[in-house]
Amino acid sequence: EKEISAVAVQAAQEQSLLELLQKVQLMWKECDMPLQPYKEYKNVYILGNLDDLMANLDESLVTISTITSSRYVAPIAEVVAEWQKRLVLFQDTLDEWITMQRKWMYLETIFGGGDIAKQLPSETALFAKIDKYWRESMLATYDNPDAMACGTYSGRKETMCTHNASLDRIEKSLEEYLETKRQIFPRFYFLSNDELLEILSQTKNVAAVQPHLSKCFDGLIAVEFGLATYDNPDAMACGTYSGRKETMCTHNASLDRIEKSLEEYLETKRQIFPRFYFLSNDELLEILADSRNPRKVEPHLRKCFDNVYKLELVEDKSVSIASMISGEGERVTLRKPVKIGRKPVEEWLCLLETEMKKTLRQCMKSGVADYEHEARTDWIMSHCAQIVMSVSQIEWCMHTELAIEKRGLSQWLQANVAQIDDLIVFVRGSLTSNDRKKIVALVTTDVHSRDVVQTLLDTNCES
């Protein structure tokens, strides 16, 4: 009877593993590579939003890892090993693909124009070869968008790796080219590479320099093409015009005083709200120019608060901030709305920062309190990602310490494995994109935690 029971358990476990493998296979059978047109070019494509694809990849790698670690994997071990190999190749190829797209998009804009291309003929020829490969590869992907087939296509990873190395050399040559320009005119060091390239790609358009004059010459906002100098462009006459030097010297001194006062004014704002130090002077001035409009702050939120991209505003008698929204779209409602009213921007941002901390502290307490009384999957869905990840680690550390003290690591390991199995089943259900990302991230952490417990058990840890 025991033998029959053991055979039945083994068969059930093997069937469960087979079903997990089949779901991974089905997922990739229905998964296409996301593409979108590039600019207005005909038949030129780039990778689109990869969030869902990356979620599928993470989920598949975790599932395959779980299957591989099972002692019942033997009947399908070869197939699982082959899928693990394909997924790792897909991951490596996708990394090279994303890198190549970023470099290609940057350099395509530069070498697409004629001026710089003429200055760097050998790099232009090399880029043309890479550009041809990119367009042909993306068109082939468009014709056959099957994600797994595209990501494991023979030689694609190696070819893209080679082209990425070539693109690195082109970027280095471009840097050296810009350095020669800066050596000739050292004030170009005040400009970023993109700003300098914008000028050099339009060398015949003198107006292209105008937006960057203030960085090259202190206090010089623009030059006039016209009026007296335009009407009489004789260089010697313009440069020796009576009183011009003295007048400009006086105005430059006045502009210096204005800039110094402006710096001091901005410093007072940064002293009140230190996170303003993360913003440039121009960004801070943009906010202060319309300080009662909270929408002016939103484009700069992510620099002041990590991954806070947007604020949810409520307009009643006065404007209030009701919640904060992350870059992924996750919303956390503030404990109490922050009233903006007629307060200066630095004042209501300080209030917002304080309320953020109080809200997250309350959410953390609630997460810890609910963890012991709710089913883990229900608990995950009822709390935001930051709380789920943090509280899960708090609880895991506490239970691991108890398991060591009570010599119960073996049972704790089984509980860890069961938690991972529950999440793998749960993640295959109907979930929003954010919930799926949250659970995949938690599975990754749980797998690492399981491995740590296994190590503690293998080394007979007792304290």
The assigned structural class equals mainly alpha
Main sheet, how many strands, which sense, barrel? 3 strands, antiparallel
Task: Indicate the percent of residues in helices.
Answer: 55-70%
Strand content: 5-15%
Distance between the termini: 41 Å
Q: Strand arrangement, largest sheet?
A: 3-4-5
Task: Report the total helices.
Answer: 19
Describe the structure.
By secondary structure, the chain is mainly alpha-helical. Helix content is 66%, strand content 7%. The protein has 19 helices and five strands. It has a three-stranded antiparallel β-sheet with strand order 3-4-5. β4 and β5 form a beta hairpin. α3 packs parallel to α7 and α17 runs parallel beside α19. The model has no long low-confidence stretch (mean pLDDT 87).
Brief rundown of the structure:
With 463 residues, the chain is mostly helical. The protein has 19 helices and five strands. A three-stranded antiparallel beta sheet has the order 3-4-5.
List keywords for this structure.
3-stranded antiparallel sheet, 463 residues, single chain, two-stranded antiparallel sheet, 66% helix, flat, mainly alpha, 19 helices, 5 strands
Topology diagram in text:
Layout: H1 2-29, E1 35-37, E2 45-47, H2 51-68, H3 77-111, H4 114-119, H5 121-143, H6 147-151, H7 156-184, H8 193-200, H9 213-216, H10 227-231, H11 235-239, H12 244-272, H13 281-288, H14 301-304, E3 308-315, E4 319-326, E5 331-339, H15 345-371, H16 376-381, H17 385-405, H18 409-427, H19 433-458
Antiparallel strand pairs: 1-2, 3-4, 4-5
